[in-house]
């Protein structure tokens, strides 16, 4: 007897009981999203969002998300949730983005903000913890941003991570682990991973050497030939002769002896008895291990970006501490509709191609009839003459 197949949604429910889901948004309750999301009024020229599944989709309701609506505008919108710290925990940020307008220049990234962010005044200067997602502009910029905020500075991942540039919906996932490793996934596939410390070039903030940490019995020897090195020195063992007459001979001075030639590399006695290492001291700007992957007061997620051509759709937002739950949620949302979405796009493309061909044929036919009409008119005119 074959085993019963467990629906994917049931797996998600089971994992949710084990995982901590800080935020989840899939816009399945219609216009109620406006009660959870706040559009910034910082600038009267900010563009507006609407709920839409776009011109083509895999499922009309499931694929509805926040869509930008006005060209050449800045956008700023956010949703608040119960503040949390990811100390000692994995942090997963995931969402889908669809540039159905074939993006030429604009952002498709999201930001995580501290709990005290002013949602009504959200703008490009609002401090954020994490910025993650695609950014496209012309031929040069087609990248996935992963920017982390530490010690009042924003640090970008030094690796170049290429984003998707077509008009279909794509699933973006960022994983930050407490062991200082990270992973970036697109459509469930790992495309980049590594060390948070090294890939964000944070090693300079780790530790510095203490310059005064010498051993107590360390002999401070100068390196190289000193500037006051002389070729002669007084003979300290010499004594004034008994028959020396100061009135006739003048004041007595000890004779000068010649020094041996200077030899580089002379060392004080005992210098090579052991290897002395600089002591380490904590840099006042040093980020501890937890600092590198921890944010204390995460409390909001938002879109703060610029777009030349509008039409991008953002959906299926998720913040959790469970990688398996995030994977299952991605499969239950994007995974279920990605295929039908492409099928609908292909059908529409064929219909548009057919329509264009028919219009072209109509134009050609009208051109033929137009030519015959001119011939008949000319014939009648000649008869009149």
TrEMBL record:
Gene3D superfamilies, per database record: 2.60.120.200, Calreticulin/calnexin, P domain
Coiled-coil parts of chain: none
Signal peptide: 1-19
Residue pairs linked by disulfide bridges in the UniProt entry: 105-137
Residues reported in the UniProt entry to bind an alpha-D-glucoside: 109, 111, 128, 135, 304
GO CC annotation, single: endoplasmic reticulum membrane
Compartments it resides in: Endoplasmic reticulum lumen
Molecular function in Gene Ontology: calcium ion binding; unfolded protein binding
Keywords from the named record: Chaperone, Differentiation, Disulfide bond, Endoplasmic reticulum, Glycoprotein, Repeat, Signal, Spermatogenesis
GO BP, one annotated term: protein folding
PROSITE patterns: CALRETICULIN_1, CALRETICULIN_2
Similarity field: Belongs to the calreticulin family.
Subunit structure: Component of an EIF2 complex at least composed of CELF1/CUGBP1, CALR, CALR3, EIF2S1, EIF2S2, HSP90B1 and HSPA5.
Protein name: Calreticulin
Lineage: Eukaryota, Metazoa, Chordata, Craniata, Vertebrata
Encoding gene (name): CALR3
């Amino acid at each position: 007897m074959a085993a019963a197949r467990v629906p994917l949604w049931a797996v998600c429910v089971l994992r949710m009981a084990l995982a901590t889901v800080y935020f989840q948004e899939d816009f399945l309750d219609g216009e109620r999203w406006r009660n959870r999301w706040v559009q910034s009024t910082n600038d009267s020229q900010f563009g507006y969002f609407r709920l839409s599944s776009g011109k083509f989709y895999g499922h009309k309701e499931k694929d509805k998300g926040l869509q930008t609506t006005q060209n050449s505008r800045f956008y700023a919108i956010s949703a608040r949730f119960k503040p949390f710290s990811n100390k000692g925990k994995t942090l997963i940020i995931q969402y889908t983005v669809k540039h159905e307008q074939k993006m030429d220049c604009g952002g498709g990234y999201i930001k995580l903000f501290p709990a005290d962010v002013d949602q009504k005044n959200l703008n490009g200067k609002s401090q954020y913890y994490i910025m993650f997602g695609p950014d496209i502009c012309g031929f040069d910029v087609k990248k996935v941003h992963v920017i982390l905020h530490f010690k009042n500075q924003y640090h970008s991942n030094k690796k170049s991570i290429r984003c998707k540039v077509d008009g279909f919906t794509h699933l973006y996932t960022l994983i930050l682990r407490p062991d200082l490793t990270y992973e970036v996934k697109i459509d469930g596939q790992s495309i980049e991973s590594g060390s948070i410390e090294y890939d964000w070039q944070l090693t300079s903030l780790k530790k510095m050497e203490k310059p005064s940490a010498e051993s107590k019995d360390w002999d401070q020897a100068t390196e190289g030939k000193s500037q006051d090195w002389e070729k002669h020195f007084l003979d300290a063992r010499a004594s004034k002769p008994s028959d020396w007459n100061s009135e006739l001979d003048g004041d007595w001075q000890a004779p000068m002896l010649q020094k041996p030639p200077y030899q580089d590399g002379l060392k004080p006695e005992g210098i090579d008895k052991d290897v002395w290492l600089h002591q380490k001291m904590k840099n006042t700007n040093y980020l501890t291990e937890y600092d590198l992957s921890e944010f204390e007061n995460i409390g909001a997620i938002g879109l703060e970006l610029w777009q030349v051509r509008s039409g991008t759709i953002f959906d299926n937002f998720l913040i959790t501490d469970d990688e398996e739950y995030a994977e299952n949620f991605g499969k239950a949302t994007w995974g279920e509709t990605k295929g039908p979405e492409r099928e609908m796009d292909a059908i529409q493309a064929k219909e548009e191609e057919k329509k264009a061909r028919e219009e072209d044929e109509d134009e050609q036919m009208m051109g033929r009839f137009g030519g015959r009409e001119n011939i008949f008119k000319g014939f009648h005119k000649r008869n009149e003459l």
